[in-house]
Amino acid sequence: MFRSAWIEIDHRALRENFRRIFRDKPEGVGVLSVVKDQAYGHGAAAVANEALRAGACYLAVATLGEALELREQGINAPILIFGERSPEEVEVCLEQRLSFFVNELEMLTLVRQAVRRVGKRACVHVEVDTGLSRYGVRWTRAMEVIRAVASAPEVEFEGVMSHFAQSDELDKSFAYEQLGRFESVLNAMREDGIRVRYRHMCNSGGFLDIPRAHFDLVRLGILPLGVYPSQVCRRIEGIRPVMSVRARIAALRDLEPGDVVGYGMHYVAESPRRIAVVTIGYADGFPRVRNRGYMLVRGKKAPIVGGNAMDATMIDVTEIEGVSRWDVVTVLGRDGQEEITAHDIASWRGTVSYDILAGWGPRLSRIHLFEEEAPS
Ligand SMILES: *Cc1c(COP(=O)(O)O)cnc(C)c1O
After folding, report:
1. Which DSSP symbol is given to 358?
2. Does the N-terminal or the C-terminal CB of the chain have fewer CB atoms within 10 Å?
């Protein structure tokens, strides 16, 4: 089938990344694979299956819908749903054996009632808010919730966790502040004789740079996808990006000096230029940029000119030999010696690589590459 723009998911890279992560991690630390938002646009079931094959013991998503989708795809592994569940969602979690958070006493009461109604035990984790101020019970009063959860016969108290506000930057002082707060809760639990199977705090940044926070389980989202959480965190040799995005040249036009390009007329040709119209725009998730960034054509950089439209982006191919209509354009990924990373695109727009990976729209089809096959 002819495609005008698409995403390629390289399973060879994904497998190799998981293999290298498993070799890098200390023995005894489990891996929870975070596949929320379709594994940041890579396909949740596809990434989950590779993770489980590599030895991951847990999966996590952000919504009940995402968890149910994984169950529908036949995935029976433990799944933890991040965030808070509304009262309506609790029974479904019990029926489908989905683990979720109990971060306050009111929620515990509700869960105990639901367990008695449904006849299935709940598997719960407690999130300790150590400074992100998002989900969880504040560390100073976490023991109150933890003691109650630990003594409720209706629930299996499986985990205690926290989440870093910043784990991948050079200045880790707040991360260590948070870690200290979490450790104080873990110490209090020890004094009370309360044990859980999984104590977990690390995302990819914490896994790479804060070994003291590894505990029993690390929650990895972006790293197995071959993208580092920041430019300054530790590197693992051989990790490479899994996702590429490609589009095509649908038209070529020759500009004369003084011609303008695109909505808003933000580019004016100062000399004769050859412009290619690429079949991808901001509706597809390529960020709105203006005379910033580039795409790759025939292994060379072609600068973006003007402001991109919803469905099209114009690039300058004047300096590139032999460009033809329907040539493949690399929007994200490698072409010959050149590579465009998610960090590159993020920097053109002033955002983070997570935003670029997760932002691609449903109009792009996903092609999963397993062997040396070349996409058509
Ligand atoms: C998204 C998320 C992660 C994964 O973070 P990465 O930086 O992608 O590894 C881990 N834990 C929680 C609570 C999350 O929401």
Report:
1. H
2. N
Q: What angle do CA 95, 97, 98 make, to 5 degrees?
A: 110
Counting atoms of ligand 1 from 1, which one is nearest the CA of 127? 13
pTM > 0.90: yes or no: yes
Domain 11-225 and domain 243-340, same fold? Reply is: no
Topology of domain 243-340 in CATH is: Lyase, Ornithine Decarboxylase; Chain A, domain 1 (2.40.37)
What is the residue type of 355?
D
Nearest-atom index, ligand 1, CA of 36 = 1
Domain ranges of the chain: 11-225, 243-340
Looking at residues 349-366, what average pLDDT do you find?
A: 95
Residue 275, classed as helix, strand or coil, is strand
Count Cβ atoms below 10 Å from residue 130 Cβ, excluding itself: 28
Domain over 11-225 is classified CATH 1.10.10.10: no
Q: What is the number of the ligand 1 atom nearest to the C-alpha of 40?
A: 8
Mean pLDDT of 140-164: 98
Whether ligand 1 lies within 6 angstroms of the CB of 164 is answered as no
For residues 311 and 308, give the distance between their C-alpha atoms in angstroms, rounded to a whole number: 8
In the prediction, which pLDDT does 368 show?
96
- Say how many Å lie between the CA of residue 58 and the centre of ligand 1: 13
Alpha-carbon gap, residue 354 to 205, rounded angstroms: 13
230 C-alpha to ligand 1 centroid (Å): 13
Task: Give the β-pairing of 294-297 and 328-335.
Answer: antiparallel
Q: Which of 25, 172, 228, 263 is labelled catalytic?
A: 263
Told to judge if 36 belongs to the known catalytic residues of this protein, a careful annotator would answer yes
Instruction: Return the H-helix or E-strand segment holding 105.
Output: helix 105-118
